[in-house]
Write a structure and sequence with these properties.
The chain has helices spanning 2-17, 62-65, 71-78; strands at residues 21-23, 35-37, 57-58, 98-101, 105-106, 117-118, 121-125, 130-132. By secondary structure, the protein is of the alpha/beta class.
Length: 139
């Protein structure tokens, strides 16, 4: 019994130690950050990377999303994903979900999108609808 307790304690201690991550270098991230991306070992305001972050690319679907019976269905349908029956989606938990949309089109009535059109660009789920980041007119 003591061995099981000791192993459990060590496991939880090691998981807690890995809660902050720097990707690209083997070092602790800046204080107050959960995730840091860098590939150059520098400090201060100097550029710390020669690469960028590539967001997941999706084809948001305003037509299918408009057919959802509730906000959770609209979110799932807009991402064009299939979930097992009975899967519960909490739309508020997905607040902040960020994707790069590759689709263009007119937004159907009832679809969870801010604006009248969608076009390629970064979209953020605000808990109730997709909002285009750095909004500029769609062509």
């Amino acid at each position: 019994m003591k061995n099981v307790l000791l192993i459990t304690l060590l496991l939880f201690t090691s998981l807690n130690a890995l809660s902050q991550v720097t990707i690209g270098l083997d070092e602790k991230p800046a204080e107050g950050t959960l995730l840091q991306l860098k590939n150059k070992n520098v400090t201060g305001q100097t550029a710390n990377s020669t690469k960028g972050l590539l967001l997941p690319r999706v084809e948001l679907d305003p037509d299918k999303s408009a057919t959802g019976n509730n906000l959770a269905e609209k979110l799932v349908k807009s991402l064009q994903i299939t979930l097992p029956p009975g899967t519960i989606i909490d739309t508020q938990l997905h607040t902040g979900l960020t994707v790069y949309n590759t689709a263009s089109g007119t937004i159907a009535d009832g679809a969870p999108f801010a604006g009248e059109k969608i076009c390629p660009g970064v979209y953020i789920w605000d808990g109730a609808e997709w909002v285009r980041y750095m909004f500029k007119d769609c062509q």
